[in-house]
Design a protein that fits this description.
By secondary structure, the protein is α+β, with helices and mostly antiparallel strands. The chain has a domain at about 45-100 and about 140-245: Muramoyl-pentapeptide Carboxypeptidase, domain 2 (2-Layer Sandwich), CATH 3.30.1380.10. The protein is about 30% helix and about 10% strand. The chain is built from 7 helices and 6 strands; from the N terminus they run H-E-E-H-E-H-H-E-H-E-E-H-H. It has helices at about 1-30, 75-85, 105-115, 125-130, 165-175, 210-215, 220-225, and strands at about 55-60, 70, 95-100, 145-150, 180, 200. It binds zinc ion. Its EC number is 3.4.16.4.
């Protein structure tokens, strides 16, 4: 009995120690963040407020089947039009998914802190290359979506190969028509990795309900580090770079 019980007790003690250690680190990793830059950015990321649940709505079921994808309600008409257009292309019909939509600051804290020590991110600076610190993610606004695809081929979620998938290429060529722009294009000077899956909504036209407030929220980011492809400021015309082929896949 002793021979069995002791290793089991040791295992649980070690497990409890690991869990409590990870929780303690996750709880205070943001304390290691440096002071904001002169322009208010934290490790390259702009500041964004949390969004009240009252202005969020569930995204269409086909985008996140059975899942929990909530977005700003003003985004919904454009999002539906985007999905309708995508469904007219046999190559990607029914294949677009949302991997992540609105994320509260509390969830962002878990994501940001919880992956430190993984994927080569040994500290907050390395982590900020691939993830925004809590209070600095576009996902907190409810205007950002991480898209994914059901295409076979081994491209996981939120990795560079998404840019080379059929859905990734379709978004690159068409998303701006529906008010979405790529926040972190290849080679951006913001110090954030290329994220071909991450698109923020700013409205296909400035006259669209909600577009003005979305653009105000992203004004600093759009002025200093333009999206590409980007939504034009005047109307729903895609930028001239839209027809360019997606950048080479890096991972
Ligand atoms: Zn994202």
């Amino acid at each position: 009995m002793y021979r069995v019980a002791r290793p089991i007790a040791l295992f649980f003690a070690a497990f409890a120690l690991l869990v409590s250690g990870a929780q303690a680190f996750a709880a205070d990793c943001t304390a290691k963040l440096s002071a904001p830059d002169a322009d208010g950015r934290q490790l390259g990321h702009f500041t964004y407020p949390d969004t009240p649940k009252s202005v969020l709505v569930k995204a269409p079921e086909q985008l996140a089947p059975g899942g929990r994808c909530y977005v700003r309600k003003e985004m919904l008409p454009d999002l539906k039009r985007l999905l309708e257009a995508a469904d007219k292309d046999p190559a990607i019909k029914g294949k677009i998914r949302a991997i992540s939509c609105h994320r509260s600051i509390a969830v962002q804290k878990m994501l940001f802190c919880g992956r430190i020590g993984h994927d080569g991110a040994s500290g907050v600076h390395e982590r900020a290359w691939a993830s925004a610190p809590p209070g600095h993610s576009e996902h907190a606004t409810g205007y950002a979506i991480d898209f994914g695809t059901t295409e076979p081929g081994g491209c996981g979620h939120a990795v560079g190969c998404f840019g080379a998938t059929k859905v990734g290429k379709w978004l690159y060529a068409n998303a701006t028509k529906y008010g979405f722009e790529m926040s972190f294009p290849a080679g951006n000077k913001q110090g954030v990795e290329w994220e071909p899956w991450h698109w923020r909504w700013v409205g296909s036209s400035i006259d669209e309900p909600g577009a003005e407030s979305a653009r105000r929220l992203f004004a600093k980011a759009r002025a200093q580090f333009p999206a590409n492809p980007a939504v034009g400021d005047a109307a729903a015309t895609p930028s001239s770079d839209v027809d360019a082929p997606p950048p080479t896949v890096k991972s």
